[in-house]
Amino acid sequence: MDQRETRDRVLVGVDGSEDGLRATRYGVGRAKRLDLDLWLVHALDDGVVAGGWGVIYDPGVLEQSGQVAVQQAVDLAVERGLPRQRVHTSVLVGHPAVVLEELSHQAETMILGRRSATGLERMFVGSTSTSLAATAGCPLVVISSASTPEPTGSQRRVSVAIGTGRTEKALRWGCQEAVSRQSVLDVIHVIPPQASTALALVSPPSQAELVWEGRVKEELERRVKPLRQEFPDLAIETHPIVGSPIDQLIAQTQISDLLILSVRSRPITGIALGGPVRGVLAHAASPVALIR
Fold it and tell me: pLDDT at position 59, please?
């Protein structure tokens, strides 16, 4: 199988849950919109198969359960209009994060469902998602059946939140996504209020905030200038926002069809997601794409 054939797939992790099915529906929509195939994968945790808790499980029973979960997703994909020959399936043994990371290098995009959580559970949201954010070989989209039960697209807006690091890949991916959706691309930068407060030490508070917003606006426009030339028919807006990063990014998911975040692995730990990104994932009202 050649490289092009494997890269032209949307990889979806399925586990039989409603969140896995929501990820499947999103994956079908992307596959149809971009004329890609769909790849449905279920990973059997080898720790469970080996009886890591002192209980011996029958691998055959677990594999049968995985096949049922995959078939359920296949039926949903076909029901939503994707030809059966464009739907591929795999049931593999291994830790889900490890299996999906390896397969992600053969995919155009990976889609995972995010289980809804409340209270302290939100602190540990998406262990598989957070692991893959640091290692995935393709963009990762995380979606929840609870917060995004319906098809996306009604907002006609794709948002990219950029920081001070290298964000060219996230911006370009956002442009391509907005073009395919015939949507506006909204490029935002959020900084805590204390940053503009520091400027207020040398300027009146009202003027300090205006000065800060002006500077950030100029920087955002500088970054998107090459993209305006490359995508002349795409409407690109830039917005500097003062406020709590978590609160402002969550608010952005309420007016966007997709929020794109640029993430990076941290030295030694390899963890890509800090507190703000984890907080956004836990409360997002739209799908969130994580781009390394």
Answer: 62
Structure-token match 């309420």, residue found: 254
Report the alpha-carbon distance of residue 184 to residue 163 in Å, rounded: 20
**pTM of this structure:** 0.86
Contact between 145 and 113 (Cβ < 8 Å): yes
Backbone φ and ψ for 247, nearest 5 degrees, come out as -60, -45
CA proximity to 147, closest of 233, 30, 22: 22
E strands, 201-244, in order = 236-242
CB-facing half-sphere around the CA of 231: CA atoms within 13 A: 21
| Per CATH, domain 1-113 is 3.40.50.620 | yes
Q: Is the pLDDT of residue 238 over 90?
A: yes
Domain ranges of the chain: 1-113, 153-292
Give 6's pLDDT tier (boundaries 50, 70, 90). Answer: low
Q: pLDDT tens, 138-183?
A: 999 999 988 888 889 999 999 999 987 778 999 999 999 999 999 9
Q: What is the C-alpha separation between 113 and 128, in angstroms, rounded?
A: 10
CATH classification of 153-292 is 3.40.50.620, yes or no? yes
Which residue shows structure tokens 């053969």? 106
* Pairing mode of beta strands 157-161, 184-191: parallel
Domains 1-113 and 153-292 equal at CATH topology level: yes
